[in-house]
Amino acid sequence: MVSDIEETEAIIDDILIWESDQKEHDMRLKQVLDRAREYNLKLRMLSAGKCEISKPEVTYVGHRLTSESVKPDPEKIRAVNKMSKLECVKDLQTFMVSAPLRTLLEKNTVWHWDEIQETSFQKLKEMATNAPLLQYYDPNKPLTPSVDASSKGLRAVLIPNQKLVAYASRALTQSQQRYPQIEKETLAIVYGYNKFHEYVYGRRVQIETDHKPLQSIFLKPLHQTPPRLHRLLIALEKYDLKVDYKPGKEMYLADHLSRSFLKETKEKETANDEHLQELQDVIFDGWPNEKSELLHSLRPYWTFRDELSVINGLLYKSNKAIVPKALQNEMLDKIHESHLGIVKCKSRARDVLFWIGMGQDIEDKVKSCGLCAQHQFLNAKEPMLMPEIPERPWSKLAADLFEYQKQHYLLIVDYYSKWPEVMKLDNETSRNTIDYLKGLMSRFGYIDELVSDNGPQFSSLEFKRFATEYGFKHTTSSPHFAQSNGQAERSVQTIKKLIMKSKDPHRALLDYRNTPLDIDLSPAQLFLNRRLKTSLPTSLPLLMPQNVNNREILKNLESAKGKIK
């Protein structure tokens, strides 16, 4: 009835009118009275206690509204103060509970009322009857929500211009009480924003927390944050927020409301690793304010403490599994099983794994490998010409044939992603070469250009017809200057090394395709937009498809090409 009248609110049969001056108030009152007449609604204007007009403060739906603030209804306060001791679970369920009282609601708990419950009960009554005055919300003033999490509960307050507008708190469930502290603090932000959605949605809001690591987490892209936080961070993406750290002692109502309320092998070895258990305790209990307060053994983790999390008994640095000491030698064997060099082994490991000193351990592993030393090439050839980088994957390919141990191979390399394809050939005819290329195009699509040498397989009339039929440009390198097909030449050297040193060339190719290049993305990520699952333990988020910024990739590829020159 009165929903279209400004500065007027109706809840069931209670109508509230407010204005900043008497003239506006009287005009608004006349509008409401006229509307009541239209609807044939009778108002008890003269009944005592039923109608109050032009008052500096009134009681409305359980609150005492004044010109400056909102406070509890005195009648409600008297009712709370007269409450007697609770006698059973049913009585308790009707009352707002804190931690000592809440435990009495749990299953299989014998009812008991001791001093600690009585103290908590009286404290809650005091809190209810001495609630802070709430100021009216002014949309023109900056908002500063403040949130906090304790071991038992969450709290959130809304403070524009250092004046309290709203506050809320709730207890944590038993499963939430087992969250690491950083996850509880993030949950507190989600709780606060959901509670104050009408105030914060659609505007830039700075939120206060006393958990400093959250500051840096909210500055990172989602894929670089701890996976346990992803669900909560996604829930906050609809809000425009900035996280600001504030020490607990400086926060408004700080801690007041919240304090009132190989997988099996890896898990086993993590549980048996004393060092990782100390780290896990710090993650769950919360990091100290200063690095000097940590155990010396945990100080190396300080700079990236906000990236650490515990999931199902395993520790992670962002999405990378932290390997317990007992499994590190096994992981080193897997990292080097394809006999890639030091740089590529480090890149491959750092993409999915972590432990303190891992880089040096990998160097020592590769340097001590007799097979790698035996097959070390001394390449002092003319420098290769660096080709132009195409704008997308599988657009321009390089092709070359090579021989190893009397077996002929055809190598295809994508210029954009460096993704290699290798096939044994029964013979080096154009027909065999064409059939293999047709098979590749049936999987990955047609290409724009193929670069090869002038071998008979590529210079035949049959191959020219194939290029015309499949609509790609065939570019050949100079017969006396193979370096002009530098992409294929470099890849031939790399693939030959893999085949020579590896017991399983297919696994070696898999590892090569999944090893990050100089731009920190692997051929698989550049070509397929995802990592490949290998023998190295990899968390699920790292195996999911990724969105790539093609413009940024091209920029990084050009930069990497310049460094090679």
Distance between the termini: 77 Å
Largest sheet: 5 strands, mixed
Q: What is the CATH topology of the largest domain?
A: Nucleotidyltransferase, domain 5
- Percent of residues in helices comes to 25-40%
Q: Helix count, per DSSP?
A: 25
Number of domains: 4
Q: What is the CATH architecture term of the largest domain?
A: 2-Layer Sandwich
Oligomeric state: single chain
Overall 3D form: elongated
Mean pLDDT: 80
Largest sheet: spatial strand order: 18-17-16-19-20
Compute the gyration radius: what is it? 35 Å
Give the tally of β-strands: 20
Q: Class by helix and strand content?
A: alpha+beta
Q: What is the top-level CATH class of the largest domain?
A: Alpha Beta
Beta-strand content bin: 15-25%
Instruction: Give start-end ranges of low-pLDDT stretches.
Output: 92-99, 252-261, 378-384
The CATH homologous superfamily name of the largest domain equals: Ribonuclease H-like superfamily/Ribonuclease H
